[in-house]
């Protein structure tokens, strides 16, 4: 199905999923998002659905589309609710611009399951950077987080996950999902770190 302009409700659903930073049950959006419009979001690659009861989860493409909406204009006919929403989005856009904060960091509302909310150790961050440099042909190239974990076998998963979450705040570090999910091995899936509502499989430093 060729992609077309999103309806106001479709925009609101993507924004809600981004801000919630977690999958939402379909009943949360109720009758606002009709099945046909929900299916469009799935077919365009913006959300994934599944489970019983049905849940909606943002994809990386959907997250990028929601972030782009921060620069969008209030939809025609959206009334005072739309006015309030897009005033808030304008505030977020200015906050991102002035602070240099990554959009995903604003909505990173939960840590990986079981992870203690502690700060990353500075020495561990340096070790991660050195391990990355030994694995990557050049700065900014993507490597699998699985390979990074293998290069630091003495570092426990909770400690490494905390360090990666902290590193993701750095301007020269980026963690992203693998776009071709079918290409992932079981090991690569298991090694992913959770940020927001997404599993990130790849890391680049020096971007």
Give a quick rundown of the structure.
The protein has helices spanning about 10-20, 25-30, 35-45, 60-70, 80-100, 105, 120-135, 145-150, 155-165, 185-190; strands spanning about 25, 45-50, 55-60, 145, 175, 195, 200, 200-205. The protein is α+β, with helices and mostly antiparallel strands and about 210 residues long. Strand 6 and strand 7 form a beta hairpin.
Polypeptide structure, described:
The chain is of the alpha+beta class. The chain folds into two domains: 8-106, Orthogonal Bundle (Arc Repressor Mutant, subunit A); 122-205. The chain is built from ten helices and eight strands. The protein has helices spanning 8-20, 26-29, 35-43, 60-68, 79-99, 103-106, 122-135, 145-151, 157-167, 186-191; strands at residues 24-25, 47-50, 55-58, 143-144, 173-176, 193-195, 198-200, 202-205. Strands 1-3-2 form a three-stranded antiparallel β-sheet. Strands 4-8-5 form a three-stranded antiparallel β-sheet. A two-stranded antiparallel sheet has the order 6-7. Strand 6 (193-195) and strand 7 (198-200) form a beta hairpin. The longest helix has 21 residues, at 79-99. The relative contact order is 0.12.
Shape: globular
User: Unreliable stretches, pLDDT < 50, 5 or more residues?
Assistant: 108-120
Distance between the termini: 34 Å
CATH secondary-structure class of the largest domain: Mainly Alpha
| Main sheet record | 3 strands, antiparallel
Total helical segments: 10
Count of domain modules: 2
Average the pLDDT over all residues and give the rounded result: 82
The count of β-strands is: 8
CATH superfamily of the largest domain: Winged helix-like DNA-binding domain superfamily/Winged helix DNA-binding domain
Q: Tell me the strand percentage band.
A: 5-15%
* Estimated structural class: alpha+beta
CATH topology annotation of the largest domain: Arc Repressor Mutant, subunit A
Named at the architecture level, the CATH assignment of the largest domain is: Orthogonal Bundle
> Portion of residues in helices?
40-55%
What gyration radius follows from the Cα positions, in whole Å? 19 Å
Q: In which order are the strands of the major sheet placed?
A: 1-3-2
